[in-house]
Structure formats: C-alpha cells, structure tokens
C-alpha cells in the first residue's frame, strides 16, 4: 500500500510538472479565456514615440502598460458579451478598417518602395527654386471690395472722416470672407496678388489707406496693417529634410496618379451621375 501511494503521489507530481511546462513562457497575463503575450506587450511598446523608449524599459512602467492592456481586454470581452460585435455599425467599421489596411499595404508595396529622394535632390531643388528661399518683403493688409469706383470713393471719404474700416468691410465688401474676417487678407509677398493690387499695396506705408484700385474683381480700398521682411533661408540639414519630405509627397502623388491610370485602362468602370 505504501508503495502504491508513493507511485500515485509521483504520478500526480509528474502530471503537475507536465501541465506547468506546457504553459507557454511568453504568456504574461490572462483575462478570462484571452491570453496576453510578451510579444503583444513589446509590440505595444514599439508603437510609442522614441522619447518614451527609455521610460518603457523600466519594469514598473511595463507593468502599468500591461494593466492598461488588461483593462482594454476586459472591455473588449464585455463588448462581445453584450453583442456589440454583432451590430451593423461594428461590421461597417471593420469593413472600412480592412479597406484602409489594404490600401495602405498596396501603396507601401507599389508606390512607397519606388520612391527615393536623396540629399542631392534636396540641394538641386533649393538651387532651382531661389524665389522660394530668398529674402522677401511681406505685407499684411485688409481691403473693401465693391463693384463701382463711385462706391469705392464714398467709402474712402467715410474712412478719411473717421469711419471704422473693419466695420465698413463687414457691411459693404463684396468679398465673401469679409463678413467673418473684416476684410483681412493676412500676410502675403510679391507675386501672390493680382498686379494692380500688388503695385498699390507695396507703396503704402503702415496704417495708410489707398484710394480706389481697379482690378478684375472690382474696386478695392486697401489698408496696410503691417510690414515685415523675411531673411534668406539658408540650406541647412533641417531645411534639406523638409525639402525631401515635400519631394517624397510629390513623387508619391505622381506615382499614385500613374498607377491609377494603369488600373483604369485595364478595368471596366461605369457610373450613373444622375443618381447623385
């Protein structure tokens, strides 16, 4: 009997050992029937910005993140139990997410991997576009736009007598945005306005108000609010990176347009705009 009991006890211990050994070492938490692995935690950590990498190497911070993942899984389990994953809204969002993931994967495979922008490309762009980086004068102005010269002249007289320019812009200006911005045009440099407007505004002094200026849009009364000069932008590593990002965006847009054109040529497409 003693021998039988010993054998039985040994069998139990062996069985327990086998159960423990069969538990994957990478599982760091269970929430109901759901298991959370160390790989999932590390994947979550890798998604944080670089400035958090040192903090997330600390065990206590990893433990806090694990607690967050546990809380999330508790909520997911509760949502499934209440049938949220059966709703039409959920299924639609899943479809949209799947579509976006597919699009991102396709663009990465067909477009992004074919884009190369070097430091030399950035330098060439900087050299070929001096007008974008040279020193410039800028103006901040407001205007009142009307249809006739006579109306513009009356507004100028009213302003000269002390009428509030911004209030008149809201009341009288034909510019659709004047009602919300009181006629403000913000900051601009040479080449951004029509020639007649530019010629007038760049000879005004700060606070001065022009007489009627005719352009293709009508007659303007212009108030110069402020002036400033922008220094020449030197070619620095930071500027080179900005230029490279801009060139990458342009190349991506161009390649995507070409790829879409190829797809259109090999795909039958029909549309019925009458139903819009």
Based on the model shown, name its key terms:
single chain; 276 residues; alpha+beta; Chitinase A, domain 3; 3 domains; 4-stranded antiparallel beta sheet; 10 helices; 6 strands; 15% strand; elongated; disordered N terminus
Give the SSE layout.
Elements: H1 2-22, E1 27-31, E2 34-37, H2 38-46, H3 59-81, H4 88-110, H5 119-128, E3 136-146, H6 149-160, H7 165-172, H8 178-181, E4 184-189, H9 195-201, E5 213-215, E6 218-230, H10 237-265
Antiparallel strand pairs: 1-2, 3-4, 3-6, 5-6
How would you explain this protein's 3D organization?
By secondary structure, this protein is an alpha+beta fold. It has 3 domains: 24-75, no CATH class; 94-134 and 233-256, no CATH class; 136-230, Chitinase A, domain 3, CATH 3.10.50. The protein is 53% helix and 15% strand. The protein is built from 10 helices and 6 strands; from the N terminus they run αββααααβαααβαββα. The protein has a 4-stranded antiparallel β-sheet. 11% of the residues are buried. Residues 1-22 have low confidence and may be disordered.
